[in-house]
Amino acid sequence: MSQQKFDQLREQLAEISDLVKTAALLGWDQHVMMPPGGASLRAEQLATVGRIAHQKFTSAKMGKLIDGLRSWGEQRDYDSFEASLIRVAALDWEKASKVPSELRAEMSRSAALANPVWVDARKRNDFAAFLPVLRKNLDLRKRYIDCFEVDDEPYDIVLDDYERGMKTKEVRGIFDYLKEHQAPLVKEVAARGGNAEHHHNFALEPQKVFELEVIRAFGFTDEAWRLDPTVHPFASGTGITDIRITTRYFSEHFGGLFGTMHEFGHGLYERQVDPALERSPLARGVSLGLHESQSRMWENLVGRSLPFWRHFFPRLQELFPDELGGYDDERWYREVNAVEPSLIRVEADEATYNLHIILRFELEQAMLAGEFPLEQLPEEWNRRMWDYLGIEVRNDTLGVLQDVHWSGGSIGYFPTYALGNLISAQIWEKITADLPDLHDGFEQGEFGPLRDWLREHLHRHGRKFTPGETLERVVGTSQIDPEPYVRYLREKLAAIYGIATTT
Length: 503
Ligand code: ZN
Hints:
The protein has about 500 residues and is mostly helical. About 65% of the residues lie in helices and about 5% in strands. The protein has two domains: about 1-150; about 170-345 and about 405-495, Neurolysin, domain 3, CATH 1.10.1370. It has helices at about 1-30, 40-60, 60-75, 80-95, 100-125, 125-145, 155-160, 170-180, 185-190, 205-220, 255-270, 290-300, 305-320, 320-325, 330-335, 355-370, 375-390, 415-435, 440-445, 450-455, 465-475, 485-495; strands spanning about 225-230, 235-240, 240-245. Strand 2 (about 235-240) and strand 3 form a beta hairpin. Helix 2 packs antiparallel against helix 5 and helix 5 packs antiparallel against helix 6 (about 125-145). The longest helix has about 30 residues, at about 1-30.
């Protein structure tokens, strides 16, 4: 009887998963293929699909089905597919059923309509044009928060959407540690003379050739992956065997390549989920923080490492003989690891990146609390950029308008980027202890052992466990610890810039 009920649950969740993935495909198409004229129609389509999925999932019938299976699930092995699916569905249901489908649909419609407004406002450096849609998104978020009981801080509710179980207070504690221990690193590097400016002109076509060679060595295959250009890079797809990543290109520097490696890391996490979880809510990365740990790992711990460039630099030099004729791998390694406060988060180096996040984390809480009129957001942004990074924001395109997130109503998302950086270093300490030959392999262009380790210890679990449980299975503790990241950064910068190895 219970097995029958479970099969019923499995089938219904599979249909909902199909709807969710259809929405993802509509979203991918919106950013990659759709002509601008499709925008308002697409907003309706996304809202409709989202509403149907939400209604199906939050129905009283579904609640009863899940409830009826709870004790049956608890009697089974905790790690089993059955127990995990019931556990996760119950938690998801409790949260989702508190939000009316109409509000949910309005949130996705508003986000889809705001996107082209943001693209245009960003292009024209016109914050005033973006303000009404930002206000609308923010109001909807507040209505969303009002659907829940707030135990401690309203921000907990939105943070939990991206990092289940994480509290604002914990993040603040971690960020305070970074302010104290990471921010000084940037000043120490600056005191050493910082970086000489490099001016390059890298043709785009050979960049594309090189980038494909790199991600193919990482594990990109034509059979299960796509790579396309977009304004703002992202990773998406319709399932384990259909992974889509996007990128953009710059001629002055190789930021596009690092962005591609980043999105590859996200894609690989989804690609290596256990196929048995497909078409269920378990078939994806467990949280944005864990997800970001994977993208940052391939971008930084692999892509900005010396062993990686020992292998790939000769090929890069071959493709850009004029630009890189006078370089060797170590000089190039120093250049791609240059530390310099800059305006754009996605191009920020490893030492300054988290400071961009702390600024956004603080502003989001202030906006939700209505601490200042929204018209003043650019001033608040610019003041913090000066306080944390010591740089002046010349215009809003390079400031408050740079990120896609607020146009999509994603508030509570940004902290997961910094948490991901920290988790990546926690996991890296474990990997390098388990695989002592890892770096020798990189020098030979061999990335399979890393990929396999990640599949075995993290990726295959998908969303079966909570983020804390998942982290514990990988590194032995459920706590996000900022120390390994700061330690990694200090050691790296000590070797490049000659700053002290300890404080
Ligand atoms: Zn990412």
